[in-house]
Automatic annotation (TrEMBL):
This is DUF2163 domain-containing protein. Pfam families: Phage_BR0599 (PF09356), Phage_phiJL001_Gp84_N (PF09931). Residues 197-278 form the Bacteriophage phiJL001 Gp84 C-terminal domain. NCBIfam families: phg_TIGR02218 (TIGR02218).
């Protein structure tokens, strides 16, 4: 997606001999903004200061008409002053918004927004990074519409579910007692919660370098008298004993759990009485009733 040309900038480009460079602004989902330019001096426009000492550069921007996906790549060096390796490892730049400009560095007020999109795949190699930049039309590749299935299609606590996860008894805050392989969290002294209460729930990090990150809970078991919470994937960010975390109750999407565990059946988004394949393939018969049960 690109913006209309500023007439003054268009006149500058028409001269043939130009003073232009590129500038990018990355806005993470947590609101932090990082801005860079491939010019040798910092630039200031649109209320943003674009740094020049980051080693950022970009490949050619491929833009098309119609609904084809615009894409490009950005390259850069990793440093504590710009994009840090640990923050990339933690996934903090996933789905970050990216704005790209063509700028007259002699008069930064003359600039043209020629790219708007998000960060796709972000990889690290040899002290640098390579970021795939995806245009706005990338969202059109996302399947839309509602799925009709027996289990609930809502995410616990979202706008469809509408369950208040801050209700007492559905979360607990506690410090990490023991962590193994960044994915198994063990407590010998654990609050009184039912077995598997947190299965399919979330573990959220409340403080430290990994604050704001979360992981989905794979199992909630008791081993040798200790409560063990295991995640599907290792937690990025280096969580150590004593780090404060929050455990949020999980939902298995069944109507029984929605009604009995959460008392939220009015907002159940599944179709528990949806006929199965046997009913759909049933043929007329005079020997027995077609009740929707198994044909066998």
């Amino acid at each position: 997606m690109s913006a209309p040309f500023d007439p003054a900038f268009e006149a500058h480009l028409a001269r043939g001999v130009t003073t232009v460079c590129h500038a990018w602004a990355i806005t993470r989902t947590d609101g932090q903004v990082f801005a860079f330019t491939d010019h040798d001096r910092e630039l200031i426009f649109a209320g943003i200061t674009f740094r020049a000492d980051t080693g950022m550069s970009a490949l050619a921007l491929q833009q098309t008409t119609g609904l084809s996906v615009d894409n490009t790549e950005a390259l850069g060096a990793l440093s504590d002053a710009s994009l840090r390796e640990d923050e990339i490892e933690q996934g903090r730049f996933d789905r970050a918004e990216v704005l790209g400009w063509l700028v007259n560095w002699a008069d930064p007020a003359q600039h043209w927004l020629n790219f708007r999109g998000t960060i796709g795949e972000l990889t690290r190699a040899q002290g640098g990074f390579r970021a795939e930049l995806r245009g706005l039309t990338e969202e059109l590749n996302r399947p839309l519409g509602r799925s009709y299935q027996k289990p609930c299609t809502a995410v616990l606590g979202d706008g469809d579910c509408r369950f208040d996860l801050s209700r007492e008894g559905y979360f607990t805050d506690l410090p990490v007692a023991e962590v193994r392989d960044a994915r198994r969290f063990v407590w010998k002294d654990f609050p009184s919660f039912d077995f598997e209460w947190f299965l399919r729930g979330r573990l959220e990090v409340m403080e430290g370098s990994a604050a704001g990150l979360w992981g989905e809970i794979k199992t909630d078991t008791i081993e040798d008298g200790a409560r063990v919470i295991e995640l599907w994937e290792p937690m990025r960010g280096g969580i150590t004993p004593g780090t404060q975390v929050r455990l949020v109750a999980g939902c298995d999407k069944r109507k029984e759990s929605c009604r009995l565990k959460f008392n939220n059946f009015d907002n159940f988004q599944g179709f528990p009485d949806l006929p199965g394949e046997d009913w759909l393939l049933a043929v007329p018969t005079s020997s027995k009733a077609n009740t929707g049960g198994s044909l066998r």
